[in-house]
Amino acid sequence: MKRELKLVKLILEKIEEDEELKPKEIILDDYSQEQISYHVNLLEEADYLTIFTETNNIPYVSHLTWDGHEFLDGLRNDTVMNKVKQKFGDNLSFIPFETLKILILESAKIVFSES
């Protein structure tokens, strides 16, 4: 299965908007449960969220980590993402995730230091 940055962003946003902080299954209309579960597990491996438990191969997410919030802030900032896309184009799926994370955070530093 391919990693989709758009789905990563949607998952992180869905977790962030939940005020209850109770473990929950992530459901998104345009994606299968397999796609969502795969990406949730990738995000846990990257230390961007915490999985409370898994039931029937469905991860139940409890919250974002500090790094998860930081990464989401970078993804959400159009100026930051435009800087990254200027260098690499719109298709960022070919860039290793750790490299993308560094590019987003470094671009954010540049954007906010110029403000």
Describe the model:
This protein has 115 residues and is α+β, with helices and mostly antiparallel strands. The chain has two domains: 61 residues; 38 residues. Helices cover 57% and strands 14% of the residues. It contains five helices and three strands, in the order H-E-H-E-E-H-H-H. Strands 1-3-2 form a three-stranded antiparallel sheet. A hairpin with a 2-residue loop joins strand 2 and strand 3. Helix 1 packs across helix 3, helix 3 packs across helix 5 and helix 4 packs across helix 5. The N and C termini lie far apart (39 Å).
Summary tags:
single chain, 115 residues, alpha+beta, three-stranded antiparallel β-sheet, 5 helices, 3 strands, 57% helix, globular
List the helices and strands and how they pair.
Blueprint: H1 5-17, E1 24-25, H2 33-45, E2 49-55, E3 58-64, H3 66-76, H4 78-88, H5 97-114
Antiparallel strand pairs: 1-3, 2-3
Helix pairs in contact: 1-3, 3-5, 4-5
